[in-house]
Amino acid sequence: MKKPFLSVIIPAYNEAKRLPLTLIDIDKWIEKQDFLVEVIVVNDGSKDNTAEIVKKFAQIFPYLKLIDNYKNQGKGAVVRQGMILSQGNWRLFMDADNSTTISHFEKMLPYIRKGYDVIIGSRDSKDVKGACQAVPQPLWKRFLGNIGNILIQIMAVPGIWDTQCGFKCFSERAAREIFSRTKINGWAFDIEVLSLAKKLGYKIAIIPVYWKNDPLSHVKLKSYFKVLLGLIKIRINLWKNVYQI
After folding, report:
1. Which of 60, 118, 175, 235 is deepest in the core (most CB within 10 A)?
2. 79/218 Cα distance (integer angstroms)
3. What are the DSSP calls for 169-186, one per residue?
């Protein structure tokens, strides 16, 4: 089998309702491309029939693969697993709810040609012009998000306002160097990934995304506090040189 140009990693936890439409949208996009793509759904110990649905789709879409974990580990853990086990020259992770569509990858191609190894999407116009959200998040999410972003910049990732957008792409080399070092299994993994990218000397390009907020999002109030705890762990790990950089 030829080496894929792009691997698309989709972490999935109880996504039986939302994932099918996402996979169909990805398939329509792949049909228009002139490069080889593999899609890997990493099931994070779902309690519904997410894994069975992916298996059925894989019978139709030969590029689709399933990594089936029977125990829930956290988004950071399964994204790490997908990044390390995928085969593509470029490795993109995106959310199962399709809040940022796969077509946004086309905005990343110019930066790939310019030699960037890490390219991320942002929903915040302070990062890049044109970034926006189709439907604004609830006020409490925006308030906590803004406070969190300031703390994240102070403690780990200066210069990036939206570290949590679930649409990030890495070269094969960057994916292996970064994700082989990550320790955070939960929601704060994006912060860890970007802080490691900066520590390793990678330039980070940012593209604007048109983000559709899903009212069924798994991100709840307690998730923000988990991110804060994760941020503290990352800061301690950086001080102690746990990542050995």
Report:
1. 175
2. 16
3. EEEHHHHHHHHTT----S
Radius of gyration (C-alpha) of the chain in whole angstroms: 17
- Cα separation, 191 vs 163, whole angstroms: 6
Structural tokens at position 193: 């990934």
- pLDDT tens, residue by residue, 3-61: 999 999 999 999 999 999 999 999 999 999 999 999 999 999 999 999 999 999 999 99
**149 and 161 in contact (C-beta within 8 Å)?**
yes
Spatial distance between the Cα atoms of 205 and 44, rounded to a whole number of angstroms:
29
Strand 167-171 to 118-122 pairing? antiparallel
Backbone dihedral angles phi then psi of residue 82, each to the nearest 5 degrees: -65, -40
The dihedrals phi and psi of 184, each to the nearest 5 degrees, come to: -85, 125
CA 125, 201, 242: angle at the middle one, nearest 5?
105
For 231, the token pair is 């941020």
Q: Which CATH class is domain 6-240?
A: alpha beta
CA angle 220, 53, 19 (to 5 degrees): 40
Q: How many CB atoms lie within 10 A of CB 38?
A: 21
